[in-house]
Amino acid sequence: MTALLEVNGLSVEFDLKDGTVSRVINDLNFSLTAGQTLGIVGESGCGKSMTALAIMGLVPMPPGRVADGVIALAGEDLLGASESRRREVRGNDVSMIFQEPMTSLNPVYTIGDQIGETVRLHQGLSRRDARERAVDMLRAVSIPAPEKRVDEYPHQLSGGMRQRVMIAMALACQPQVLIADEPTTALDVTVQAQIFDLLKELQEQTSSAIILITHDMGAIAEMAQRVVVMYAGRKVEEALVDEMLTNPKHPYTRGLIACVPHLEAKPSEERKVLTEIPGVVPSVAELGRGGCPFAPRCAEAMDRCHDEMPPEIIAAHDHKVACWMHVMAP
Amino acid sequence: MMISDKPARPDKQVAIQVERPWLEAWNMFKKNRAAVAGLIILSSIIMISLLGPLAFPADPFAGAGPLLSPPGERGFLLGTDQQGRDILVGLLYGSQSTLMVGAAAAAITITIGILVGALAGYYRGWVEEVLLRITEFFQVLPPLLLAMVVVLLFSPSIVTISLAIGIVSWTSTARLVRAEFLRIRELDFVKAERAIGSRNARIIWTIILPNAAPPLIVSAALSVGVAILFEAGLAFLQLSDPNVMSWGYLISVNRPQILEAWWPVTFPGLAIFITVLSVSLIGDGLNDAFNPKLRQR
Fold first, then answer.
1. How far is A121 from chain B (nearest CA, A)?
2. Minimal-distance CA residue of chain A relative to B197
3. What is the tens place of the pLDDT at every residue in B64-96?
4. Which CATH superfamily includes the segment(s) A5-93+173-326?
5. Which domains, ranges and CATH numbers included, belong to chain B?
6. A63 preceded by cis ω (within 30°)?
7. Which of A54, A71, A100, A141 could disulfide-pair with A164, CB 3.0 to 4.6 Å?
């Protein structure tokens, strides 16, 4: 299958206050096909959300800029496209769901207006048709009594309902790619499961590709087919989800998986100690030194890790990793 | 009759969740007794200014009786001034120009303030720098002197006086709007709006501005009161349209006789006082209506 969205050698730079330049995304490559869900995992500050903004063309400029790379949607180069073309793409071909459903809806307009606005903007629908589409979308995201809800304001809805409305907004134009930036982080666990089911169901109907950005390995196991693990603006590992969960290669990936608590089948079974990854993600100012950025926190770091950046190698079938541990000695 | 399967709708008194934000605001406004009184007073003043001249068709500048006749005597309810003009007729006709200047000047204040504040707060960078320096330039000039200069450059008329007041008083509105834009532009729904492909103009005027409306409405109401006071002040300094009756003009021409006759200055002064007070009370009520912290009470 040919790739629907291709990200190749993407680098995003930010000008810092002291005049230095920091690369918050460094030489990132991935691609996804229609109907596929790609998970991007990493801690806060790893460049996950910035990747999403770069695909949307919403990197705050200045101080940020896309320094290098190609982002191609169905073969069309987006980074070289004009601003008006990018606006056409945004919301219509690529749309995005944000983390905070409580603040992502405009409090002064009804939810029907906000869903309908997207289709009016991109497909030139009349006010009445847009309203009908809004009702249809609300029904599609399983909101009860959509004809009545369409005229309500965001403050009248619960968090889960609002995230459904956000999804309805994002999918109103049937985009080819949906970027979900931690769509369930702010929601209850039960509501999380509902939202994931809803996303999967809608994906089957529309065959949209989804990029799911999260730090939750559980969410990845549930939703994604492919996983990219990011650390400090770089891809450290990429594999299919089963391979990644059963056979993680990078120490960082292993750490992320070990962080997820497991419920044991029997209470008598000995519970594993929940591990943590010591330290924090380096700040943007600390990036750009030589060596693997994870080395200071890595239990298995060797001398080489502190001096040289590991290349990306193929560790197993369709499984890439950037770590010196897996590089054969010459 | 059949029994409805829906639970009986509680009376309108116990509406806990209100359907529309504007209705909610109106309910909060109604709770402020003083603001409702202000609204009634201002509405009455506007009605009187519209109907009064029809009820008393007269030239407010023409002498109607003896000079400086005290109130209540010879059929002059509020007395006459030093040229024998009926004070009541003067007040009725003067109310029109006073209210008109108040509204027009407030409109100019708000318009300039929104334009400057919105562009500065949304675009940031050099746009903000330039607009803020211009705002500061206007802030450091003494407003009354600047307004006098503007009025004197052109001939005093309702239009030039409104313009002059608007030009000297937009700065605080601009700063308020800029602050609101700085806050709202970072909110998630503005990001979401960009993510669906909206243009900047759309985001500024239909997304951020309505969300900045509550403090802006309060400030607009208060600037009406300020404009009315300003107009009276300019008229007191003889800077008013000589062909249009106004309250400030009445005070100004009758000031020399204030020790012999108190009424020609007192009644127009009271009129200004009551009007500005009612506008302030309304502004206070609007503040209650739109201040989310008070809404939970």
1. 8
2. A87
3. 777 777 777 777 777 777 777 888 888 888 888
4. P-loop containing nucleotide triphosphate hydrolases (3.40.50.300)
5. 32-61+79-295 (1.10.3720.10)
6. yes
7. A141
